[in-house]
Specification:
Blueprint (H helix, E strand, L loop, with lengths): L5 H17 L4 H25 L5 H26 L3 E3 L3 E5 H25 L11
Antiparallel strand pairs: 1-2
């Protein structure tokens, strides 16, 4: 795969940050736009950086996606299926304790499953499992 030189990546990040500061009309809009750009930059670069890590590589990437997707999907379906008391109604009115527990459970099992599989395949697991 082709890797962009560091100068090109820095130029793209600087251009995005500059546009975030120059385009919005108010200080409040600039702050929100710059914050959104910063979050998007992390989301766009972190999987690539994790994949290129010399020890974890693809295992770390698989672990990250398994945990995030497992948590999100299980929280949604557990919350919709079981309902129950709201977790933080003022912040997010549809989040429930059952969704939290479902997401936590499946996310944990997904992460442990990837780490266990990696250890069995002789790959470096992204988390320690003690004696696997």
């Amino acid at each position: 795969p082709l890797a962009a030189p560091d100068a090109v990546v820095a130029a793209i990040l600087a251009a995005g940050a500059g546009a975030s500061l120059l385009l919005p009309a108010s200080h409040r809009d600039r702050a929100w736009t710059l914050g959104g750009f910063a979050c998007a930059a992390v989301v766009a670069t972190e999987p690539v950086a994790l994949r290129l890590h010399p020890v974890w590589g693809v295992t770390g990437l698989l672990w990250m996606f398994a945990v995030v997707w497992g948590t999100d999907i299980a929280a949604y379906f557990a919350g919709r299926t079981f309902g129950g008391p709201k977790l933080m109604p003022r912040v997010s009115p549809k989040k429930t304790w059952s969704g939290f527990v479902g997401g936590l459970t499946v996310g944990t099992l997904a992460g442990v499953g990837v780490a266990w599989s990696a250890a069995r395949l002789g790959w470096q697991p992204p988390i320690g499992l003690g004696t696997v």
